[in-house]
Amino acid sequence: MSSNLLFKKNKLFFIESIFLINYYKYKSYKHIFISRNKMDALILAGGENKRIPVIKGFLEINSRKIIEANIESLLGIFKKVIVSTNSPELFFYLGLPMVGDVIDYRSPMTGIFSALSVPDVSEVFVTACDMPYINVILIKYMIEKWSDDWDAAIPVFEGKLQPLFGIYAKKITKKMEENIRNNRRGLREFLQEINVLYISEQDVRNLDPEGRSFVNINTMEDFHREGGKICLV
């Protein structure tokens, strides 16, 4: 065997070895991260589609249903992903636990409250079924900053709070229920009443420079701008 061929084979073996070492390091880190993370993920899918005539989570961006792509991303971080919906028959095929509104006032706050009311749920990371670009690196950063001292953790982008990309603790359920029953269902207003860890805009931009995590599809114009297509099944 020529020395040149031997060198190439040794080089290839070295590259493959480095790849396998890094792969198993990643798998090990991922397992450790999930096992230490007692938090669940919650996808809000119970909103009324007043401006889009189909279920927003079933819209396709980059040839994938938004909700299915988000579930795949979240299952890489959390042991459990819960779907908040009042139409479980539509989401049953996903094979995930679901929770409906326990108070008859439809709002994102009601969906969060209902999930936190489940006995074995202590804290949730919340996102929505119409947010196609959630950033797993930003989510992990928020989890790493999180502690039991806080009631919620919310990122700031373009000077605005982003409450549908946040962490909420079970201990806020009593206050949250009071607000819902008194018709104070705005999350941004609610955050002023609790102890919030704010993720600074600079920290957010370091991980998600354009704030794509906070893009949501509210209208058909939004949908077409993102190059999506409708999936009816």
What would your notes on this structure say?
By secondary structure, this protein is an alpha/beta fold. It has one domain: Spore Coat Polysaccharide Biosynthesis Protein SpsA, Chain A, CATH 3.90.550. Helices cover 40% and strands 16% of the residues. It is built from 9 helices and 10 strands. The chain has helices spanning 3-36, 66-75, 88-91, 108-116, 136-145, 173-181, 187-191, 201-207, 220-225; strands at residues 40-44, 60-61, 64-65, 81-84, 98-99, 123-128, 152-157, 160-161, 166-169, 196-199. Strands 1, 4, 5, 6, 7, 8, 9 and 10 form an 8-stranded mixed beta sheet that branches. Strands 2-3 form a two-stranded antiparallel ribbon. Helix 4 (108-116) runs antiparallel to helix 6. The termini are far apart.
Low-confidence stretches: 4-33
The structural domain count equals 1
Radius of gyration: 21 Å
Query: Helices and strands: which structural class?
Result: alpha/beta
Number of helical stretches of at least 4 residues: 9
What is the CATH class name?
Alpha Beta
Summarize the structure.
With 233 residues, the chain is α/β, with parallel strands linked by helices.
